[in-house]
């Protein structure tokens, strides 16, 4: 009895991407290898068109195939072809990488701007502060002694209105009136518009 075994596999029809993906869902490594061989060039081409950088494109393509291996069970043939599912995944991953890179560049730029030492003219700043200080002293000298005392304690001393009232041994309402009147006069003297 003789049996005729056909060792030539060329007569066997290659599996479709959908069939390969179904087998990948069951952990078939050979099917995964075949799927990779069939579609990897297209995936890499799409990713490279979006990312430009070849090294990043290869990295993202590798991530895509890892995701295919891990999520093949989620593929539903009734919702579309395997190629469409994979290429959509590839496009999404590439766009995510672009956004992530852009966010990183934006973050680095903001940090760089924040940390950038701004040119600072100490002499000009000192002169400006001194001139402003002299203007305030001149305006304060035009207040009544009682107004000047209340304003100095509240704004230079940092005391609350109640504390100023206690220190001067006067009613709280009187302190508030002196402060209000003193600040109005200061505003007018300094030419500050509200």
Automatic annotation (TrEMBL):
Residues spanning the signal sequence: none
One GO MF term attached to the UniProt entry: DNA binding
Matching Gene3D superfamilies: 1.10.1740.10, Winged helix-like DNA-binding domain superfamily/Winged helix DNA-binding domain (1.10.10.10)
CDD domains to which the protein is assigned, alphabetical: Sigma70_r4
GO biological process: DNA-templated transcription initiation
Annotated keywords: DNA-binding, Sigma factor, Transcription, Transcription regulation
Domain RNA polymerase sigma-70 region: 35-102, 139-187
UniProt keyword RNA-binding present: no
Family matches, as Pfam families: Sigma70_r2, Sigma70_r4
Keyword Transport in annotation: no
Family to which the UniProt record says this protein belongs: Belongs to the sigma-70 factor family. ECF subfamily.
Descriptive protein name: RNA polymerase sigma-70 factor (ECF subfamily)
Annotated organism of origin: Cryobacterium roopkundense
Taxonomic placement: Bacteria, Bacillati, Actinomycetota, Actinomycetes, Micrococcales
